[in-house]
Specification:
With about 325 residues, the protein is of the alpha+beta class. It has helices at about 1-10, 10-25, 35-40, 40-50, 50-70, 95-105, 145-155, 160-165, 210, 240-255, 280-295, 310-325; strands at about 115-120, 125-130, 135, 140, 170-180, 190-195, 205, 220-230, 265-275, 300.
């Protein structure tokens, strides 16, 4: 991705704009991530039109011709990096989604049970939990992180297990901090910010969640969600909670002005947080899919295959659901 950007906008601009964008989305290094795996639309547009600027101009012309022909204005579909849109969330957070799904499915969901092994039967599958209890099904969808799924397949199909283990992850630490409004000088009239790695700062970025989403903080308070680590700084996991906050405060204070320690501090450590679509990702994915196809009724979904976002996971879930319904 870095080489792609550097050839078109220069190395300095790539370091300033592309590198922090990649860190913010993937927690990865632009020099190691695969462009067609991370932003397939961008690659397709360049291949089809011979360049991104040409592609955007051509798409605008096509859109105008279509509008003249139909007499209707078309919705904007976005740029080369992906679709247009706006930041959206549930009022009190994304956990509303899983809570509602859980309530709707009710007793179908077996909570607090860890699937540890998968076995094939003549007419379907056995899923065995940590207590030796077996659940049987005609179709199985594995929606775990790849490293968790790999251990489940170890006894059943070592090839699938190895293919799942081949997907790399980057560690990420998310620091949620709540502050009294008067303790932060900056007006916080925006989204937040991302920081280029060239600045030699450990903080990847900070999102001002209470500025962009509703009901994230009570009256008179604000909330930040800041990220550290990623593929370029794996040693950050060795810092204590106190060291993490001191690092974050030292790096954020010159930018937004933090007078006191936070009123609320919650730290989430993900040793394997975000899948890395590094060079060779599409080949790794194709290898896994070939191995999975040898076992009818077996499917995988998740953020390690076609995209790390919630949107991409939902798209993949629809595709797999359609395959199951056809059976």
């Amino acid at each position: 991705m870095f080489d792609f950007a550097a050839r078109r906008i220069g190395r300095a601009a790539a370091e300033t704009f592309v590198d922090p964008m990649v860190s913010g989305v993937f927690g990865g290094l632009a020099r190691e991530l695969s462009l067609p795996a991370c932003f397939p639309v961008m690659r397709e547009m360049e291949m089809q039109y011979g360049g991104l600027v040409k592609a955007m101009v051509a798409r605008q012309l096509e859109k105008r011709r279509s509008q003249k022909k139909t007499g209707r204005a078309e919705k904007t579909t976005g740029g080369p990096a992906g679709p247009s849109g706006r930041l959206t969330s549930f009022k009190t957070g994304l956990d509303v989604l899983t809570q509602c799904l859980g309530n709707k499915l009710g007793t179908i969901i077996k909570r607090n049970q860890t699937a540890v092994q998968i076995q094939r039967r003549e007419d379907g599958w056995d899923i065995i939990d940590q207590n030796g209890i077996t659940a049987r099904a005609r179709q199985v969808v594995i929606a775990c992180p790849t490293y968790t799924a790999a251990s489940m397949f170890l006894d059943f199909d070592r090839g699938i297990s190895a293919a799942l283990n081949a997907f790399p992850y980057a560690p990420i630490i998310v620091v949620a901090s709540g502050h009294r409004r008067e303790d932060v000088i900056h007006p916080l009239d925006g989204f937040g910010f991302l920081i280029p790695r060239s600045q030699k700062i450990r903080t990847l970025g900070s999102i001002w969640t209470s500025s962009i989403f509703s009901e994230r903080a009570p009256e008179g308070y604000i909330q930040f969600r800041s990220m550290l680590g990623g593929a370029g700084d794996t040693s950050v996991n060795g810092l204590s909670d106190e060291q993490l906050w001191n690092t974050l405060k030292r790096e954020l204070d010159p930018l937004i002005g933090i007078r006191n320690d936070p009123h609320l501090l919650q730290i989430y450590r993900w040793e394997r947080g975000i899948p890395q679509f590094t060079l060779g990702h599409r080949e790794r994915r194709a290898c896994l899919e070939r191995l999975i196809e040898r076992h009818p009724g077996l499917f995988v979904v998740g953020n390690a295959y076609y995209g790390v976002s919630l949107n991409e996971c939902i798209k993949m879930a629809y595709r797999v659901s359609e395959k199951i319904l056809k059976k």
